[in-house]
């Protein structure tokens, strides 16, 4: 038993070498992974000063060694942007950040409310290559009631995001959803989110007429590129056709992605558009899905 505990202690001590967050939190077992490329590792943690439970999100930069240098910087910028955006948004159905992002030479890290795991790991415990909290997830399955209630929570989060924050999420995948320790689903993964033009133009969120007229406000986004590493851009299989084929998005784009997420939930975690990172396969696959866009 002592050998097991020492092994665990040594493993935990190497999670965030030199990161300032370790001065604030004691880091425990690995709960799962989240975010683009499942690069964020989720660890159970306790705040040293209060013993309050939390979850530490850690990204080890060594996991980006296979990336071209320019794309490595892109991924780090994307991750920082996602955490910064999420930190500013306060809503019961959106992940609560309790300790801002800290960066060291070897890692990025921040702390959130205590979690059970990510939706991706809940659907497919063995999806990632790391050892997760396997004992808790080994026989874990989401019931129909849990899925329906979880989807209600996500729609509430999206409604707030669209109507009050004037922001589009644009990467609604299981890796962007987490389940807290009480079983509540929280929206995370704001790495590719964008402010809509009505926000930039000063639209008043309380003006019903303005809101109604801006429901289909369309903004431009970068065209999906085959040459980029997957973590540098939204997941191809979860994107709306107008975003991939035209570089245009609106609130309807998030609704399309929500529909694809629902299909994934009822398909054992497998995407409806199982295209991997193959742009040509996406173009072919999307023809088999009913859709409408200008």
Automatic annotation (TrEMBL):
What molecular function does GO assign, one term? Answer: protein kinase activity
Q: Entry's InterPro entries?
A: CIK-Related_Protein, Kinase-like_dom_sf, Prot_kinase_dom
Identify the residues that the record assigns to the Protein kinase domain, covering every copy. Answer: 25-294
Task: Please name one Pfam family that this protein belongs to.
Answer: Pkinase
CDD domains according to UniProt = PK_SCY1_like
Going by the entry's taxonomy, the superkingdom of the source organism is recorded as: Eukaryota
Q: Which PANTHER family match?
A: SCY1-LIKE PROTEIN 2, SCY1-RELATED S/T PROTEIN KINASE-LIKE
Tell me its family. Belongs to the protein kinase superfamily.
Q: What is this protein called?
A: SCY1 protein 2
Its taxonomic placement starts with: Eukaryota, Metazoa, Spiralia, Lophotrochozoa, Platyhelminthes
């Amino acid at each position: 038993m002592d050998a097991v505990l020492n092994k665990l202690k040594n493993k935990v001590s190497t999670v965030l070498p030199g990161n300032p967050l370790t001065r604030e939190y004691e880091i425990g077992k690995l709960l799962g992974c989240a975010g683009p490329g499942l690069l964020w590792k989720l660890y159970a943690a306790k705040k040293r000063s209060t013993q309050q439970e939390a979850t530490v999100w850690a990204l080890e930069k060594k996991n980006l060694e296979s990336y071209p240098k320019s794309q490595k910087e892109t991924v780090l910028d994307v991750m920082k942007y996602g955490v910064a955006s999420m930190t500013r948004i306060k809503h019961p159905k959106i992940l609560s950040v309790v300790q801002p992002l800290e960066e060291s030479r070897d890692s990025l890290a921040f702390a959130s409310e205590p979690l059970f795991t990510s939706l991706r790991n809940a659907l497919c415990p063995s999806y990632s290559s790391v050892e997760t909290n396997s004992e808790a997830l080994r026989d874990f399955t989401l019931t129909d009631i849990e899925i329906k209630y979880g989807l209600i929570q996500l729609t509430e989060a999206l409604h707030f995001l669209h109507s009050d924050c004037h922001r589009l999420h644009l990467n609604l995948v299981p890796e962007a959803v987490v389940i807290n320790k009480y079983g509540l689903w929280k929206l995370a993964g704001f790495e590719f989110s964008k402010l809509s033009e009505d926000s930039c133009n000063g639209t008043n969120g309380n003006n019903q007429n303005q809101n109604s007229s801006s429901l289909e406000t369309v903004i431009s986004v970068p065209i999906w590129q085959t040459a980029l590493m997957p973590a540098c851009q939204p997941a191809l299989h979860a994107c709306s056709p107008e975003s991939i084929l035209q570089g245009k998005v609106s609130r309807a784009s998030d609704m399309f992605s929500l529909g694809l997420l629902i299909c994934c939930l009822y398909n054992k975690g497998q995407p409806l558009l199982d295209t991997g990172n193959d742009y040509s396969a996406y173009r072919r696959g999307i023809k088999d899905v009913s859709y409408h866009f200008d």
